[in-house]
């Protein structure tokens, strides 16, 4: 989420809901379009789908980043990072009987105010929320908050909390003591937890990518690079990470973290977002500023590098979901190759990226083609007569029946061909009589 341009987040556990966030949070429900006429309050996303606005949250101004709580309950809990560095927990039409009631309105405040650039929930321990902040010479830039803990880490002293409003008994709490503090005197531009280990956090710092191990925060693994924005892990290959800088995307293998294993073609405009497809192996989408084109990089068949000089191969193509410039996009969490894009004026489109179709002929003349997860086969029907079959099929079947090899009773060869072609029957009977009379003639000499 950059400036006032809108961004899109799909609900982690509701495949028919997404939120658009810019100056406010807007929750939409996506549904099939049953008729050509739109219902009141609905927006058309495509010929097949519409979106209905369910709720709006305008309680969190100066939003810079948003992250959706990864667990099912509470289902509509979101963390909002603000321009002053505060992280606020808010909701969209939440159930007040759920456990979210005690979390809504809670704020997490750094020692020194500066912009919050990125947020990331721990996918396993969902009470942990990582926040990446701008640089401050006397403070840390990566703060990990425990949204439910009532005590400071490693002490028995209660975490400092004050009421936001003394007159509001249901006012939120302000928490000022993070669970972990990392990246001193540096800036953090992007974050993501590593799925292979819930204690490992990958951070795009000012001049390097760093892996922090929360079991030993005094040490870190890092590599110097400018590609520190938008770090994201391939959901199907947890050692593969993508990041970007200006118009260039770097692909990293965490097992060989010294340098990128692949650098994608540099674009003329700065990149604004990169995202792995959650339903397709090795498919990366990228978006550049002021563009209506989304570039796709297919690394599904990329081999693991064996030597330092091995350069993986990729297939690159572009799709155009709409005519206007795209502000952001989001892959659908379960529908294959489907995404929703949003323009700067909040116009949205539901779009499916069609797979390349691969064709292959089998040795027995069957035609097969692959599209996405589906494999199709086209063969001739078994009930078709020999006259209707393809000539290659006829030749194969006749060869299997030893057609033309009966030299004693030559006329029987038409039976080996299926006995369905009267011209072929006439031919073999003619040959039979020619041979017969030839033999008789030679015997009379």
UniProtKB/TrEMBL annotation:
Source taxonomy: Eukaryota, Metazoa, Chordata, Craniata, Vertebrata
InterPro entries reported in the protein's UniProt record: MIOS/Sea4, WD40/YVTN_repeat-like_dom_sf, WD40_repeat_dom_sf, WD40_rpt
Short name of one Pfam family: MIOS_WD40
Compartment annotation: Lysosome membrane
Matches recorded under PANTHER family: GATOR COMPLEX PROTEIN MIOS, WD40 DOMAIN-CONTAINING PROTEIN MIO FAMILY MEMBER
GO molecular function: zinc ion binding
Provenance organism: Grus japonensis
Protein family: Belongs to the WD repeat mio family.
GO cellular component, one term: lysosomal membrane
Domain of life: Eukaryota
Protein name (Swiss-Prot/TrEMBL): GATOR complex protein MIOS
Keywords: Lysosome, Membrane, Metal-binding, Repeat, WD repeat, Zinc, Zinc-finger
């Amino acid at each position: 989420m950059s400036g006032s341009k809108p961004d899109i987040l799909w609900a982690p556990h509701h495949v028919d809901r997404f939120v658009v966030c810019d100056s406010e949070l807007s929750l939409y429900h996506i549904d099939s379009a049953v008729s050509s006429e739109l219902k009141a309050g609905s927006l058309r996303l495509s010929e097949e789908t519409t979106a209905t606005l369910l709720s709006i949250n305008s309680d969190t101004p100066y939003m810079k980043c948003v992250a959706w709580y990864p667990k099912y309950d509470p289902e509509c809990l979101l963390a909002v990072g603000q321009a002053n560095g505060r992280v606020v927990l808010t909701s969209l039409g939440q159930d007040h009987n759920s456990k979210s009631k005690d979390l809504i309105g809670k704020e997490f405040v750094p020692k020194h105010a500066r912009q919050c650039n990125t947020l990331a929930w721990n996918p396993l321990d969902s009470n942990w929320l990582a926040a990446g902040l701008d640089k401050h010479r006397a403070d840390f830039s990566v703060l990990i908050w425990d949204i439910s803990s009532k005590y400071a880490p490693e002490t028995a002293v209660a975490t400092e909390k004050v009421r936001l409003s003394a007159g509001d008994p249901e006012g939120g709490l302000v928490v000022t003591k993070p669970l972990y503090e990392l990246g001193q005197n540096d800036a953090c531009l992007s974050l993501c937890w590593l799925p292979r280990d819930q204690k490992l956090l990958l951070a795009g710092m000012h001049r390097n990518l760093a892996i922090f191990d929360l079991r030993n925060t005094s040490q870190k693994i890092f590599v110097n690079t400018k590609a520190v924005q938008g770090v994201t892990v391939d959901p199907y290959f947890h050692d593969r990470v993508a990041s970007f800088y200006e118009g260039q995307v770097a692909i990293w293998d965490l097992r060989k973290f010294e340098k990128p294993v692949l650098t994608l073609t540099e674009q003329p405009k700065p990149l604004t977002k990169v995202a792995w497809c959650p339903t397709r192996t090795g498919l990366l989408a990228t978006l550049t500023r002021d563009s209506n084109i989304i570039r796709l990089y297919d690394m599904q068949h990329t081999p693991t590098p064996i030597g330092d000089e091995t350069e993986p191969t990729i297939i690159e193509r572009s799709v155009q979901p709409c005519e206007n410039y795209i502000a952001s996009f989001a892959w659908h969490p379960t529908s294959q190759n489907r995404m929703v894009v949003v323009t700067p004026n909040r116009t949205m489109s539901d779009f499916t990226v069609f797979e390349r179709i691969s064709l292959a002929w089998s040795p027995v003349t069957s035609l097969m083609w692959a599209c996405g997860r589906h494999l199709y086969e086209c063969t001739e029907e078994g009930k078709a007569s020999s006259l209707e079959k393809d000539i290659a099929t006829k030749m194969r079947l006749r060869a299997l029946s030893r057609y033309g090899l009966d030299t004693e009773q030559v006329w029987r060869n038409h039976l080996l061909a299926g006995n369905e072609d009267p011209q072929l029957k006439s031919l073999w009977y003619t040959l039979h009589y020619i041979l017969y009379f030839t033999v008789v003639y030679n015997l009379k000499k």
